[in-house]
Write a structure and sequence with these properties.
Largest sheet: 2 strands, antiparallel
Low-confidence stretches: 49-59
Shape: globular
Number of domains: 2
Radius of gyration: 19 Å
Helix content: 40-55%
Number of helices: 7
Structural class: mainly alpha
Strand order of the largest sheet: 1-2
Length: 200
């Protein structure tokens, strides 16, 4: 009954195919949104004027830019996520490394174009398509939260039976435990017990 093809590799719901067509379309759409979101983030580089208090008594002057936006727009932000997955695909397929494409924007555009052309291959054959879908969805959500003025979803620490702490959000589609490799669907991961705060 535990046939490997009985659940979608991305959403973990029952499926007659390795990945639901809808999940494949969502992955492609999330990838396709990233270049435009990268451009939009430029308008949000100035720090928010809304009082993000919580550091009472801090006398340090705020940075003249929004650090979250700076991180996402720098090399290693959105660029780091998409180029890492492009490198992984090229190595797995035995293809040449990606060519130099120019600045961060050009690199993101090129890597996203490459990944979108390989979405079907990822969904049909790549062992880590779940992780790819999560990474791309997380980056898109973070960008949209900044652009829309929302806070990113709060991460909740939960404990796998093996003792590893996983950080999830209420809309996490599922998670794989890095400790014991157990795979949890959306409902299962939300049923895991909350992690106890370690008294340091």
């Amino acid at each position: 009954m535990n046939d490997a093809t009985s659940t979608c590799a991305i959403c973990r719901n029952p499926s007659s195919t390795r990945v639901h067509p809808g999940c494949e379309e969502r992955l492609d759409g999330n990838l396709g949104a990233l270049p435009g979101l990268y451009r939009e983030l430029e308008e949000h580089l100035a720090p928010s004027r809304r009082g993000e208090s919580g550091r009472s008594g801090s006398r340090t002057a705020p940075l003249p830019v929004n650090e979250r936006v700076l991180d996402l727009r720098a090399r290693g932000g959105i660029e780091g996520v998409v180029t890492t997955w492009e490198r992984d695909a090229r190595e797995t397929l035995g293809w040449e490394p990606a060519p130099f494409r120019g600045d961060v924007q050009q690199t993101i555009d090129g890597a996203v174009t490459f990944l979108r052309l390989q979405v079907s291959w990822f969904c049909d054959a790549h062992d880590a398509v779940f992780e790819l879908a999560q990474d791309i969805r997380r980056v898109r959500s973070e960008c949209e939260a900044i652009i829309g003025g929302d806070k990113p979803p709060r991460r909740i620490p939960v404990t796998c039976p093996c003792g590893t702490v996983l950080r999830i959000t209420l809309d996490t589609p599922g998670a794989r435990c890095p400790g014991c490799e157990a795979q949890y669907g959306h409902a299962e991961v939300l049923r895991l017990p909350m992690a106890e705060r370690s008294a340091a």
